[in-house]
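Colleagues,

For the teaching module next term, I've prepared a clean inverse folding example: a structure given as tokens, and then the sequence designed for it. I'd like students to try predicting residues themselves before seeing the answer, so please don't circulate the second half yet.
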């Protein structure tokens, strides 16, 4: 967790890293890659996160839906392609170009997350496919107006 740009400068030994805004970030908005000390001036001067930069092959997302009875359904994983300079999602490939085992694992992870969070509605579970063909959850994104706990 970081409070501002000065806090990030104090953590320069953590580079290369990704600086994410604590609020209002989505689809690459509110995300800045900080590879070297020269990049620190681009850091956000606001509360957020500083995460270790992951060397990944591609980023995928699975949309998962869950109803009040706990039944879940997923859509096939999509592959996200980001604009190289703006770092915003530029387009998606559907379905993602991944192996069957990666697609099945992504589906399993998305179902587990929405179930463990006891959410009702839709959830986007974004994951990195590493160069070693592992999946790392990068972000979960519930549509704000739709999500509620099934306890309510």
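(Answer key — instructors only)
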């Amino acid at each position: 967790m970081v409070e501002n740009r000065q806090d990030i400068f104090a953590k320069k030994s953590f580079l290369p890293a990704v600086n994410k805004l604590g609020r209002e970030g989505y689809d690459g908005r509110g995300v800045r890659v900080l590879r070297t000390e020269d990049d620190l001036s681009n850091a956000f001067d606001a509360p957020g996160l500083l995460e270790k930069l992951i060397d990944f092959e591609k980023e995928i997302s699975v949309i998962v839906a869950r109803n009040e009875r706990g039944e879940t359904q997923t859509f096939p994983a999509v592959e996200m392609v980001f604009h190289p300079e703006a770092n915003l999602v530029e387009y998606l490939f559907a379905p993602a170009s991944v192996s069957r085992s990666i697609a099945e694992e992504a589906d399993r992870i998305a179902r587990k997350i929405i179930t463990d969070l006891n959410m009702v509605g839709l959830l986007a579970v974004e994951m990195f496919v590493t160069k070693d063909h592992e999946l790392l959850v990068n972000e979960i994104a519930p549509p704000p107006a739709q999500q509620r706990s099934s306890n309510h």
